[in-house]
Design a protein that fits this description.
The chain is mainly α. It has helices at residues 19-27, 30-52, 60-74, 78-102, 105-121, 124-128. The radius of gyration is 18 Å and the shape is globular.
């Protein structure tokens, strides 16, 4: 069979999920979308902080890490789940350390939010929907 004849009317291959079904799967996992947006926002804050001189340029590595995890989560990739899980766990630990040493209330809030995201991501229902 040729490439042209093996595609369906919409230009999709028979075994591949359509863009609509991928969007529908993501809508079934609103937590992953929230986590992806959270990581993208943190990456943006880091970039702005590096540009303003508040953070060292090495922090751009974290920004790239967060952007990759965010984009991959939106596409429901399993590797992005692992990347985001590591990012959220490290953020939770870091913010708990900040709160314990500096007693900053926003750090406690961010740590608790990170723990909620971590607990959501390790659910079996979430992991089973990733590809």
């Amino acid at each position: 069979m040729t490439e042209l004849s093996s595609t369906m009317a919409g230009g999709e291959r028979p075994g591949e999920p359509s863009a609509v079904s991928k969007r529908r799967e993501l809508l079934q996992l609103p937590g992953l979308a929230a986590i992806g947006l959270y990581l993208a926002a943190l990456a943006g804050v880091i970039v702005v902080g590096v540009v303003k001189g508040a953070y060292p340029p090495l922090f751009l590595v974290f920004s790239a890490f967060f952007f990759a995890a965010s984009g991959g989560l939106m596409l429901l990739f399993r590797w992005a789940w692992a990347l985001a899980l590591a990012a959220v766990l490290l953020l939770a630990i870091y913010n708990m350390w900040l709160f314990s040493t500096l007693h900053l209330a926003p750090s406690l809030v961010q740590a608790l939010l990170s723990w909620v995201f971590f607990l959501y991501m390790i659910r079996v229902e979430v992991r089973s929907k990733l590809r």
